[in-house]
What we know:
The chain contains twelve helices and 17 strands.
Amino acid sequence: MCDTFVAITDDGVMFAKNSDRDPNESQCLDWVAAADHSMGDRVQCTWIDIPQAAHTAAVMLSRPWWMWGAEIGANEHGVVIGNEAVFTKGRYGDKALLGMDLLRLALERSRTAREAVGVIVDLLESHGQGGPCSYEHQGFTYDNSFLVADPGSAFVVETAGRHFATEEVRGPARSISNGLSIPGFARAHADQVRTWVASAAIRRRRTHEAACRATGPADLMAALRDHGGSAAPRWSLIHGGLGAPCAHAGGMLASSQTTASWVSDLRGGPQHWATATSAPCTSLFKPVRVDTPVDLGPPPTNRFDPGTLWWRHELFHRGTMASHGALNPGYRHARDSTERRWIDDPPMSQEAFDEADRLERAWMADITAAGLRDTRPAWVRREWLAIDRDARLGSAQLDREPQPSPG
């Protein structure tokens, strides 16, 4: 489950997305250089291969560890895209292109948002969409919607199988979540029950209101951290913390976790910020650039590895969640002031990631020293014990300080 939204200002477009997926499904930042390809070349996507384009643009992606496609991304021309799972009435397709594959292909093959919409539609009609969308739950599949933006425009694309509808965003904001939202298309294709379980309308309303008020990247970061109006997460037995944009796993029917977050300010030259870690309420948004790859160490998987950035942060994230209301305020001011400084004068990405590592080590030491009991509901604690067990992450590891990144 996810939320993606844009704010349309007099100076241009701002974009934001939370990527909500399985709690142990690590997500990594990936930089892919521009390339020329020979006639007849093919590209292997997650489940199928398709003809390669003659030229592919440089892209920066936030990508679930096991798939070729991406949840969020930007290209060298200032195009950004976020996708959403949507639940429709028809039969979901067999293995074809995932929505995440369509997102990456559109970034690689477009110079504008309008061109990217055309790429998505053409590929959808030619190859279809379908196949397992989760590594750990192979039966989980869905259709997709997309929010596509560049410095001067934004578009929504919603799909149901090979059917689609598009809408140009006229402002001042537009948000998409885990439900079809183009009225006629939604009436024809939406699965209302699964859309309700995903709390799509609640989250879309909150992110749309936040986007309408946004004046800069900090406002979008705050919207991605929204817990539904409360300082700390609130859990439902049905869908955990999915009733707010900053999603926290712990429900019986749906248990999604925000595993990566992203903000783009496309006004006056694209500038992007990515967490490269889960739970924006415990993460720092670091400045990143399409043309400046960062060495973030070894890529993560769905198993605990303290040598990877994503899993080092999980020690801090999962430690905070035991008593979020008491522990998060201890570092929230320092987090926000650091981000304001980075927004006003973005440092080189590697410098920001190194500073974030140092800050999180200090904050983790404070959390460990506090020794507070787990205050979450009993069913949430049980769910997270199982999640930690699946990741081979024990309580002793949760109590130890994250180690610095290699190099």
